[in-house]
């Protein structure tokens, strides 16, 4: 019993410490950029680089804005005037850019998202915003795929969600093996898409058919 209590106390303390972890200030972030510039071999005090730390921090605020957004807030409004519509809704070719969490270099691609609504639908732009929300974080493509489909599934409670993401990773194109043009594809399915292979086929066929 004592061991259990001690374990719970340690867990509570760890959670409290994590909650109190201080976010670095803008000045500290800019100083870190100057350090990286110097480490790379350049002079952070030369004219062309004097304002680079400020620019980088401003860019990071935009590139990683997904940490400050809430998926539930995006998907909380739905519309019920859909008549007797109960078939697939597909939004394809949602362009996105994200950053690999292993090397902090971009990966760029398109997401294709479909769902079967139950009585109510969500605004189409909200699906694109959900993709952007999770893309604007440090990511792996696999985790990005999972986060998008989980947010859709939990917020909308549809009969099923399907997602396919295809992207080129600069960590493969610019460094390491340097294979430009290599594309990575990830898919995930829930509900009717997971349980009925024919619906998976229809989803994939719609994507192929629309490309001619």
From TrEMBL:
Catalyzed reactions per annotation: GTP + H2O = 7,8-dihydroneopterin 3'-triphosphate + formate + H(+)
The enzyme's E.C. designation: 3.5.4.16
Binding site for Zn(2+): 100, 103, 171
Pathway given in the UniProt record: Cofactor biosynthesis; 7,8-dihydroneopterin triphosphate biosynthesis; 7,8-dihydroneopterin triphosphate from GTP: step 1/1
Signal peptide start and end residues: none
Superkingdom field: Bacteria
InterPro entries per UniProt: GTP-CH-I_C/QueF, GTP-CH-I_N, GTP_CycHdrlase_I, GTP_CycHdrlase_I_CS, GTP_CycHdrlase_I_dom
Family indicated by similarity: Belongs to the GTP cyclohydrolase I family.
Summary of subunit composition and partner proteins: Homopolymer.
Name listed for the protein in its UniProt record: GTP cyclohydrolase 1
């Amino acid at each position: 019993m004592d061991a259990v209590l001690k374990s719970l106390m340690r867990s509570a303390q760890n959670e409290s410490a994590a909650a109190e972890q201080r976010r670095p200030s803008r000045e500290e972030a800019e100083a870190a950029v100057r350090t990286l510039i110097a480490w790379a071999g350049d002079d952070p005090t030369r004219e062309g680089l004097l304002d680079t730390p400020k620019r980088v921090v401003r860019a990071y605020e935009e590139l990683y804005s997904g940490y400050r957004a809430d998926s539930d807030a995006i998907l909380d409004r739905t519309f019920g005037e859909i008549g007797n519509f109960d078939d697939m809704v597909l939004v394809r070719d949602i362009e996105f850019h994200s950053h690999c969490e292993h090397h902090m270099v971009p990966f760029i691609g398109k997401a294709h998202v479909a769902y079967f609504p139950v009585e109510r639908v969500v605004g189409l732009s909200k699906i694109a915003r959900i993709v952007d929300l999770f893309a604007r974080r440090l990511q792996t493509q696999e985790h990005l795929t999972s986060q998008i489909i989980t947010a859709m599934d939990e917020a909308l409670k549809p009969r099923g969600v399907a997602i396919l993401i295809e992207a080129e990773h600069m960590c493969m194109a610019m460094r390491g093996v340097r294979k430009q043009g290599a594309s990575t594809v990830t898919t995930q399915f829930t509900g009717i898409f997971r349980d009925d292979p024919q619906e998976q086929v229809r989803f994939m066929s719609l994507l192929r058919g629309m490309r001619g």
